[in-house]
């Protein structure tokens, strides 16, 4: 084997406590459980930030958030990420995600990649919960990644960020195993300010308990997308030549202390 490919899969907003891989009562991650039996599972992983921009900057650079101190109005200096390094070593690089901080935001993170695949042309408004259920999801980005892999003639390094577990949820019916019409009705009427409250203790009493079954369904969908990606790589004969790292940038919280949002799953 020559130089291995590198695939970083970021399960955006997925916290370790809600994965069945690490003991959650609902079977949210059956594929990740199976994959973990053939991989290394880290049970004490921590993220250095509770939102996407600083957390991904740390993932890409290895520098803790308190070290790089990148803010939303600032720009990362060129050539600082692992993907920059791999590109200099001859790797083809690509990022596939709906997350704007990795693609269109002027933070500079997208500069680390030759190929940037962001919002699909017909995607719905992610700030309007009523428009997103059964709308855009990570399966499309997974397909884009696979097509890109098919085109590569050299070793490649890619980041696939899956936003399916990010509020507002847009879970397909096949994976909405624990939701109910009552929960979805409340979800669709949430004020925008509450959507961002899942990162700490700010949700009104009882709301977190109603949202968590929807969150678990979204994680179940994320796990299914992950299964598709790994299966596609295996079918193409490239999985054994690929270093796969699966983690999250941060998690969500449903009334617990903020620490819950800083404990991601981590599998390599």
List the helices and strands and how they pair.
Blueprint: E1 5-11, H1 30-36, E2 41-42, H2 52-61, H3 65-68, H4 82-88, E3 92-96, E4 115-117, H5 129-132, H6 138-151, E5 156-162, H7 181-188, H8 192-195, H9 207-235, E6 242-247, E7 266-267
Parallel strand pairs: 1-5, 1-6, 3-4, 3-5
Antiparallel strand pairs: 2-7, 6-7
What does this structure look like?
- This protein is of the alpha/beta class.
- It has a single domain (5-90, 99-155, 168-267), classed as Alkaline Phosphatase, subunit A (3-Layer(aba) Sandwich), CATH 3.40.720.
- It is 32% helix and 12% strand.
- The chain has 9 helices and 7 strands; from the N terminus they run E-H-E-H-H-H-E-E-H-H-E-H-H-H-E-E.
- The protein has helices at 30-36, 52-61, 65-68, 82-88, 129-132, 138-151, 181-188, 192-195, 207-235, and strands at residues 5-11, 41-42, 92-96, 115-117, 156-162, 242-247, 266-267.
- Strands 2-7-6-1-5-3-4 form a 7-stranded mixed beta sheet.
- It starts with a strand and ends with a strand.
- The model is unreliable at 126-135 (pLDDT under 50).
- Residues 4-256 form the Sulfatase N-terminal domain.
- This is Sulfatase-like protein.
- Pfam families: Sulfatase (PF00884).
Summarize the structure.
The protein has 268 residues and is an alpha/beta fold.
CATH topology call:
Alkaline Phosphatase, subunit A
Count of DSSP strands: 7
> How are the strands of the largest sheet arranged?
2-7-6-1-5-3-4
Number of helices: 9
N-to-C span = 19 Å
Total domain count? 1
Poorly predicted residue ranges: 126-135
Q: Tell me about the biggest sheet?
A: 7 strands, mixed
Rg over alpha carbons: 18 Å
How much beta, percentage-wise? 5-15%
Q: Tell me, what's the shape?
A: globular
Mean pLDDT, all residues: 86
């Amino acid at each position: 084997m020559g130089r291995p490919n590198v695939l970083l899969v970021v399960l955006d907003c997925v916290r370790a406590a809600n994965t069945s891989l690490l003991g959650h009562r609902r079977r949210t991650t059956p594929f990740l459980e199976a994959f973990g039996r053939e991989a290394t599972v880290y049970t004490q992983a921590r993220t250095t930030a509770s939102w996407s921009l600083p957390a991904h900057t740390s993932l890409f650079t290895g520098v803790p958030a308190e070290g790089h101190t990148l803010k939303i109005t600032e720009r990362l200096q060129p050539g600082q990420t692992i993907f920059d390094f791999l590109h200099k070593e001859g790797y083809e690089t690509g990022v596939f995600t709906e997350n704007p901080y990795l693609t269109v935001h002027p933070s500079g993170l997208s500069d680390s990649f030759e190929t940037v695949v962001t919002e699909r042309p017909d995607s719905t408004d992610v700030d309007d919960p009523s428009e997103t259920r059964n709308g855009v999801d990570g399966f499309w980005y997974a397909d884009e990644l696979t097509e890109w892999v098919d085109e590569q003639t050299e070793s490649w390094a890619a980041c696939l960020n899956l936003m399916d577990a990010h509020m507002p949820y847009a879970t397909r019916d096949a994976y909405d195993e624990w939701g109910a019409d009552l929960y979805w009705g409340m979800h669709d009427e949430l004020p925008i300010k509450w959507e961002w409250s899942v990162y700490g203790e700010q949700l009104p009493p009882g709301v977190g308990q109603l949202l968590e079954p929807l969150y678990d369904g979204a994680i179940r969908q994320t796990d299914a997308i992950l299964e598709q990606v790994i299966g596609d790589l295996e079918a193409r004969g490239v999985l054994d030549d690929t270093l796969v790292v699966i983690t999250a940038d941060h998690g969500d919280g449903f009334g617990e202390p903020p620490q819950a949002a800083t404990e991601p799953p981590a599998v390599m």
